[in-house]
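Collaborator request, handled under Task 6.
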Amino acid sequence: MNLMDRRTALKHMFIVAGGMMIATSCDFSSKSPSIQLNNVKLDLEDEQLLAELVEAIIPKTDSPGAKELNLHLFVMKMLDDCTSPEDQKKFIDGLAAAAKLKGKPLEEQQAYLLALPEGDVFFRVLKGRTIQGYKNSEYVMKNKLVYELVPGRYNGALKMNA
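Structure tokens returned to the collaborator:
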């Protein structure tokens, strides 16, 4: 076996080993959510319910709704990465309580969310992360906000009061 064959064999071995590592980290079950979560256990049904609930907060009008912008994925990731374990548990419990809303009309989902107490962790996290995701979405950044370079516009004719 010459040097070139050994290099090719090693290269193929590393490619196979890398593929095995990637494949073992993937979950190919039909109930797994679209994104990988490390701390929160959500399944595909939870993700679909969450997509409906964020759509109830920011429904589609002349601009895309929360579901179309995939804000439910943003909420899931922020819940997993940036929420305390206590609030994660309260959110999961609130999501389980809201499971009866799956497939219900938008107005009924909105009424349920508005009827929740003001300090409810589920509603606070859901609404806050949905709005945060919407404000930081590519659609809003490109189509709704006017970007000006820092330090901003120069107006040489501006009168200053002394």
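The cover message to the collaborator said: "Residues 3-25 form the longest helix (23 residues). The chain is about 55% helix and 0% strand. Please let us know whether this matches your experimental observations."
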